[in-house]
């Protein structure tokens, strides 16, 4: 196993994102938490400006950042501003938290591919935000849908085929 990398994505309620990503090839670990907000040490009850997000640990010899983005755009609706399913507000925004210019460029390219696919009725509103810090969510939110298999989620594979 090579050197592992991390990716940071937000696309609505973090429970469903984690549940789907954990099963993908090359994913070694997932953790739900908060990204891009205004306060230190955010909590589920106090995370102003933070997105509910996911830290994905992956093996770049088995998958790529672009492949993660491809899957990300297939499991949530990237065309709804600050909303996924019944969840509304900036906590549920679609965002890619890039760590460097290479990731930013790959994210921009993927957004262009998704828009050109015409799979969605409107254009992608996914935000590109510079990664600053990931704050892990409380233990009760980690692996939530593993512990509660019938729990709430608005995530599912909307398209079988890859954008690539």
TrEMBL record:
Entry annotated with the keyword Oxidoreductase: yes
Residues at the active site: 13
Coiled coil: none
Segments forming domain Peptide methionine sulphoxide reductase MsrA: 6-154
Catalyzed reactions: L-methionyl-[protein] + [thioredoxin]-disulfide + H2O = L-methionyl-(S)-S-oxide-[protein] + [thioredoxin]-dithiol; [thioredoxin]-disulfide + L-methionine + H2O = L-methionine (S)-S-oxide + [thioredoxin]-dithiol
Keyword NADP appears in the UniProt entry: no
InterPro entries documented for this protein: Met_Sox_Rdtase_MsrA_dom (IPR002569), Met_Sox_Rdtase_MsrA_sf (IPR036509)
Keyword entries, A-Z: Oxidoreductase
Source taxon at top rank: Bacteria
GO molecular function, one term: peptide-methionine (S)-S-oxide reductase activity
Family designation: Belongs to the MsrA Met sulfoxide reductase family.
Protein name from the UniProt record: Peptide methionine sulfoxide reductase MsrA
Annotated source species: Cyclobacterium marinum (strain ATCC 25205 / DSM 745 / LMG 13164 / NCIMB 1802) (Flectobacillus marinus)
């Amino acid at each position: 196993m090579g050197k592992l990398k991390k990716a940071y994505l937000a696309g609505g309620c973090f429970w469903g994102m984690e549940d789907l990503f954990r099963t993908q090839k090359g994913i070694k670990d997932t953790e739900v938490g908060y990204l891009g907000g205004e306060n230190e040490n955010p909590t589920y009850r106090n995370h102003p400006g933070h997105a509910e997000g996911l830290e994905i640990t992956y093996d770049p010899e088995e998958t790529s950042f672009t492949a993660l983005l491809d899957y990300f755009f297939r499991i949530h609706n990237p065309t709804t501003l600050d909303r996924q399913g019944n969840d509304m507000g900036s906590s549920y925004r679609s965002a890619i938290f890039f760590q460097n210019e290479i990731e930013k460029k790959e994210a921009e390219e993927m957004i262009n591919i998704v828009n050109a696919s015409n799979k969605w009725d409107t254009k992608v509103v996914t935000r590109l935000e510079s990664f600053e810090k990931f704050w892990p969510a409380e233990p009760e939110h980690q692996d939530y849908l593993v512990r509660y298999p019938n729990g709430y989620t608005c995530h599912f594979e909307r398209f079988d085929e890859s954008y690539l």
